[in-house]
Structures are given as structure tokens and as C-alpha cells.
Amino acid sequence: MRNDFSRLNRKILLQVLMIASAAILLGILIQHILIDGFLQDIFASGFVAFCQNVLSLSQRESINLYQQLFRNNKTLWLAGGLFLLLLFLFYWALARMTKYFNEISAGLDKLVEGAAEDIVLSPEMDFMESKLNKARSILEQRERAAKEAEQRKNDLLVYLAHDIKTPLTSIIGYLSLLDEAPDMPVAQKAKYTAITLEKAYRLEVLIDEFFEITRFNLQDMVLNRQRINLPFMLQQMADEFYPLAAPLGKQILINAAEGLTLWGDADKLARVFNNVLKNAMAYSYENTPITIAAVEDNTNIVITFANRGDPIPPGKLDTIFEKFYRLDSSRPSHTGGAGLGLAIARQILTAHGGAITVESNMECTTFTVTLPAMYQK
């Protein structure tokens, strides 16, 4: 189906030709039947009789008036008649054309109302019908995605609210024991204190996830661009993750050429890399490396994060970037967050003119971040 007005233009052109042909035909009929044809004598006799009986003119005066008004101005009367005829036909054609606007208006009303049925227009408006139905389909998909995201958000809030009670109850319980037994043995007191501290850290993580969910709004993001030493940023981030990686036997390996720089918001891009690396840490096997590589490719800088772990199902390779989506849909754990990390990363990269993709197989999972190497306003 052609995405233009060709079919409609052809119909309009055909109607114009039909109107012109009808006008010419009627003009010829008027000329050869009424003015110069067999109706001429009837019309002339009727006009002369009218002048004699109504206007009280003589026969000679009536004939002269007929000659002056009609016989000597045949061309003018013919032109005037054709003009009135064309005006009438133009109005008729315009009325037919406005039905297309009415159809489009009705289709837009259905689009706004979210009607479930397809929008149907005239056959010559098939391209517009296709566009409106495509827009309706896209809006329905977005509405479903928004509802699913909202449902995932609500589920996560319920899970988090439930999980907050567990460490909070433990903290209160152990602090009560410490308060009620001031003479508790040092070893037991140290044990209870360590458990309480661990639960407090867990409570802090859950509260952070609550804040992450409620402040997810990056549409009006303002970027503070500057020159970034990419190898230094990646190495600094790897050092920050070392305390988490070392106990699990995981290594974070950096492979980036010295002097590799890019323009961007350092704080927001650090958040991107942090979120991607955190995801790699959460879903990689113990005693395996996580490799971060950065290269300059033409006008882009490409950063890859590769880890060994269970492969991501092909059907979920795109959905993992949706907000509030977690690959492991079970309740939040120490290794899982609110399902916002990758969604936030994608929005930040989009604001920078970049992108993020993922590939996964039995050997490894690789996230690829692409950013413009040059400064873009």
C-alpha cells in the first residue's frame, strides 16, 4: 500500500474532469437547443407574449427587447449560465470532498477515545486508514506496557514493604536482647551486634530501593557535559566493587586504551556503568571474571561488559530494559533490586545520543554501551 495521496488525487482529478465535461456538455446543449435550437422559437414566442400581456408592450417593442436582451448577448448569457453551473457543480464536489475530512475527524475521535474496533475510511483513503490504525495499535501497546510496568511497580512495593519488616524485626529483637542483658558475654554481644549491623545494612538497601522507585523520572534530565577519562572512571568503579567481588572469587578486568576520552555527564554515565556492572555481578557465576572493554570505533566509543552466567532467554533480551522488570521475578533479594537499573541506564544513554544492547548465550552475556566520541549539543 502506497503511503501517499495518489489514489485520492486520482479520484479528485477524475471528479474535476467529470465536472468540466458535464459543464461543456450542458453548455453545448444550451447553445444548440435553447439558444440556436428547436426551443428557440418557443422561448422567443413566450418572451414576446410575456412582454405584450404583462409589460403592455407592442409586438414590435417586445421583439426588439428580445433581440437586445438575448439574440445580441448570446455569448454573455451562455457564459453566465456556465458560470452558475460550474459554481453549483463545484459546491457539489466540495461537499463530497469534505466527507473525507469528516471521516478523518471521526477516526481521530476513535483514536482519542481508545476504541477497540479498527478505524475504517473510504477505499481511496486506505493509506490514512493504515496510519490511524497503526497509531491506535502503538497507543494500545504503550498503554499495556504502562499498565504492566505499574503492576510490576505495585508488586515490588508490596514485596519491599513485606521484606522491610524482616530486618527491622531482627534489629529490634537483637537490640532488645542487648539492652536487657548488659552483662552479656563479650563474644555473644559481638555476635548479636554483627547480626544487627548486617540487618541494618539490608534495611538500608531496601529503603534505597523505595527511593529509587519513587524518584524514577528522568524525562527532564539536564546533562552537565565534560571531558571524561574513561579508563580511569572504569578502573575506579572496578575498585569500588572489589569488596563485593573478592569474597565470591570474581575478578573485574579492565581493557581500555590509555587516553581514551568521551564527552558526557560524568555522574550520570558513572551511574550507567555502575548499574550495568551491578547487574553483571548479580547474575554471574562465582569464581569467574567480569571483563570491561572500551574501544573507539569511528565516531563512537563502545564499552562492553561481559560475564559468565545463566543465559538470558531470547524473549527477555528487550524487556530487561523496561522499568520495574527483573529477570528473576521472585521477591527482591540481596542480589536483586527494584528492576530500574537497566531502564535508568538506557534513558541516560538515550539523552547522550547513545544506546545499550545485550547479547546472551551459553558462554557469556555481553552488554554493549555505545556513546558518541565527540561533543554533541
Q: How is this fold's topology laid out?
A:
Elements: H1 6-35, H2 39-53, H3 59-69, H4 74-113, H5 126-180, H6 186-214, E1 225-229, H7 230-245, E2 251-256, E3 261-265, H8 266-282, E4 289-297, E5 300-307, H9 341-351, E6 355-360, E7 365-372
Parallel strand pairs: 2-4
Antiparallel strand pairs: 1-3, 4-5, 5-7, 6-7
Helix pairs in contact: 1-4, 2-3, 4-5, 5-6, 7-8, 8-9
Tell me the strand percentage band: 5-15%
Q: What kind of sheet is the major sheet?
A: 5 strands, mixed
Mean pLDDT: 77
Q: Under the CATH scheme, which class of the largest domain?
A: Alpha Beta
Q: Given the structure, what is the number of helices?
A: 9
Helix content: 55-70%
CATH architectural type of the largest domain: 2-Layer Sandwich
The named CATH superfamily of the largest domain: Histidine kinase-like ATPase, C-terminal domain
Tell me what you see in this structure.
There is one protein chain. With 377 residues, the chain is α+β, with helices and mostly antiparallel strands. The protein has three domains: 6-113; 146-214, Orthogonal Bundle (Helix Hairpins), CATH 1.10.287; 225-372, Histidine kinase-like ATPase, C-terminal domain (Heat Shock Protein 90, 2-Layer Sandwich). It is 59% helix and 12% strand. The chain is built from nine helices and seven strands. Strands 2-4-5-7-6 form a five-stranded mixed sheet, with helices on one face. Strands 1-3 form a two-stranded antiparallel sheet. The model is unreliable at 329-336 (pLDDT under 50).
